[in-house]
Protein 1
Amino acid sequence: MSSIRPWRTIERRKSRQIMVGKVPVGGDAPITVQTMTNTPTSDAGATIDQIRRCEEAGADIIRVSCPDVESTAAFREIARAARVPLVADIHFHYKRALEAADAGAACLRINPGNIGSNDRVAEVVRAAKANGCAIRIGVNAGSLEKDLLEKYGEPCPEALVESALDHIKLLQDHDFHEYKVAVKASDVFLAVAAYMGLAEAVDCPLHLGITEAGGLIGGTVKSSIGIGNLLWAGIGDTLRVSLSAEPEEEVRVGFEILKSLGLRTRGVRVVSCPSCARQGFDVIRTVEALEKRLTHIKTPISLSVLGCVVNGPGEARETDIGLTGGGNGKHMVYLSGVTDHHVESAAMLDHIVSLVEAKAAEIEEAMSDAGHADPAVAAE
């Protein structure tokens, strides 16, 4: 069978590339996954602890809100401790943007039209240029300008796109081009239509998101539909899954969306059945336990966990490691798609974890020998 599968090809929209700290966004760079802290930024210790958890989950970029001078005062310590670039989230108060840029922000999240006069926009642009900051324009259906609401009568794709273009012009008028743009809405149809319209109008990187998506389950479904549709159409250079959940969960969901479309390959990709009366072991609890115990694996590995032999062998042929339920408490283990040995139920979890860890170490060593420092990045 040919390895070329045109029905699985996503042709990404051509965008120009900007840098957020040392992380490229746009162009041919991998689509980055972002999240946002929810601790009081003025509490540097708590914020750094949360950033560390997000980094361990794989966050490429992390946003930190800076609503007051106490937050920007703590931002310098936070930025020094962070291992990934930080975006300072600024609303209305242009001086917070100036302070955050000086304190080490790699990017400023602002809407230029909401921070006051043209002179204030010019000051922010000067601070961004002086400190090597990018800017993320964040248009939101819930906070559209009054004149656009009056013009269109309600939030609509055309209104979001016009707002984005107005903000872009303010930056371009000051010869600033290191920006990316989001046009978010909590309504999936509205957000997708707005992003599609904006993608045709500009060449800058686009930051994807369905805002106020909801809790872990509902928000994951909603975000997957919206963000997934856009990514499938080739639109999007960076994303945040907005959940009423811990920020590291946003990161994990973001990567799962990208992995499902073959756009990122970080960590273990689990193929598992929903289980039925034929299962030779408790598939649901086994998968839950494996997902928790394998979160530390960054290397791209595929693992199939199937409760019986109906689909088990077929799925195992397509994965690095496979487990298929058998009778009498003995289950078949597959390595690189080939039947290899049996494992008993009592030892099954520890055994599969050890196999995945060993496979990850093997891949990491091979990548290291080939001169790649990060096997997850090398695979992309």
Protein 2
Amino acid sequence: MRPETRERVLAAMAELGYSPNHAARALRVGSFGVIGVIAHQLNRTGESRTIEAVVEAAGREQYSISLVDVETPSTADVSAAVHRLTHQSIDGLMIIRAEDGTPPTLALPPGLPVVVSDSRFVGHHPVVSTDHRGGARLAVEHLLVLGHRTVHHLAGPADSGSSRVRAEAWRHALRAAGREVPPVLRGDWSPESGYAVGRKVAGDPDVTAVFAANDEMAVGLMAAFADAGVAVPGDVSVVGFDDVALAGFLRPALTTVRQDFTVIGLNLVDLLVRQIRGEGSLDDEHLLVPAQLVIRSSTASPAPHRRP
């Protein structure tokens, strides 16, 4: 329509308090313009930064987001969230992390476009995921090259898929190098859990290098070392995972594995929108986003008094 006509229509809409009827729009054009997103623990770096990128990319494609933050990553909670979203008129579904869910156990409506940020769904739905194995391997190899006899691992929760993958890659990297695999140190992603572990191992002379499964636990670990008089990296080298915004401003600045959450979010939206627009089945698509080691000042060769 002509610009002046459009302005008169918009003015009338504002005066009458009119808002578009999305159900009617869907009947006319076959789309609600809404993407459903299921996530867990939005306070976590990976989830929050991925969703931030998803919202931005979806907006450019003229889609809004309907977000459900499930209480637990259990199959029951994720399935309930799927049921809730599919009754809210969505065009497609994005699952940031299913954790306990697997293709046989997670019931998804047939015909609904779906994309998942979880590699266990490869071959069942399009997947975008970080190369957790490659990133963990880079962290371990960096510490071994510096001269550390072995690398201790501060892992995330045992029920987390990304935590399990990073721990498996840590073990494999040590075994491939013919090094001892020490017992796993366990946290819950929080800096408090990293601090608690740090207090326990600060006095252990065998601990000269720690790979933490995320930056928050690495920060807690380094705080505990500082309180115990253990120097980083003079006594113990520390590597994190994620590359949070503050990582480069810590003292010492944190060596870490960078996940490109922006690329992950953009690709999740792209794969989902392509399905919504009828490009056919993309179930075999698996985009593995490379992780990058960012070397800063929290790692160094082991001190002579702590060398084996």
